[in-house]
Each structure stands twice: as structure tokens, then as C-alpha cells.
Amino acid sequence: MIQATEYPGCYKVNLTKLDLESMGNFEMELNSHLSPREKVILLDFAEVEEISSAILGILLKKKMEMRKGGCEVYLWNVKPIVRRILKITKLAQFLLMQQQASLGIPAN
């Protein structure tokens, strides 16, 4: 579901649908992969086409936890439909990576 990529601090989410059914596994894997040792963590959402409010809650909680440890967590390669949900919920500025080019990671 979530796997490390060749780029340090970048993790690929390999599901198209993040909903109540996948919530428990998503949270467990997120917790096992993310560590505040990194200054910036990117979650590659290139495959994600649907996201539930429960998953948004998990992401916000994790972002706040990591921020306390000096680490920022962002969503990256977000499809337009998911980006729209983030804008509607006013979470786009909080969760979306704005300066991905400066990290040296190519976008999909």
C-alpha cells in the first residue's frame, strides 16, 4: 500500500481508493514508514483517485505529529480530482507540496 521510493523521504501510495475500508491498513503503514528524522516527507499520490474524509483526518493528524518533531509532510503528484477535494475542504495549502522542483524529484 505504501512503499519507499528511490528518493529519501518519498513514499508512494499504491492504492487508487483511500476510504474507510483501507483506513486501518493505511494508518498502520503510514506510521511504520514515517519518521521525524527526515525534514520533509512526500507522499506520492499519483495513483490515488478517491480519498475519504477519514483518510484526510489521518493525514492531518500525522502531519501535526511530524511537525512537532521538526518534519513536514506533504502530498505530491496529486490528481486533479483529489486536488479539488483538498481545495473544497480548504486543505490544499496545508497538505499539497508547493515547491517540488527544488527537491530534485521528478513529477509523474
Taking the sheet with the most strands, its summary is: 4 strands, mixed
H/I helix tally:
4
Order of helices and strands: EEEHEEHEHH
Radius of gyration: 13 Å
Count the strands? 6
Structural domain tally: 1
CATH superfamily, called what?
Answer: STAS domain
CATH topology: Transcription Regulator spoIIAA
CATH class term = Alpha Beta
Q: Which architecture does the CATH hierarchy give at level 2?
A: 2-Layer Sandwich
- The oligomeric state of the chains shown is single chain
Distance between the termini: 18 Å
Runs in which pLDDT lies below 50 for 5 or more consecutive residues are none
Helix share, percent: 25-40%
Structural category: alpha/beta
Shape: globular
Strand order of the largest sheet: 1-2-4-6
Percent of residues in β-strands: 15-25%
Q: Kindly state the mean pLDDT as a whole number? A: 91
Domain STAS: 18-108
GO molecular function: anti-sigma factor antagonist activity
Organism: Leptospira idonii
Protein name: Anti-sigma factor antagonist
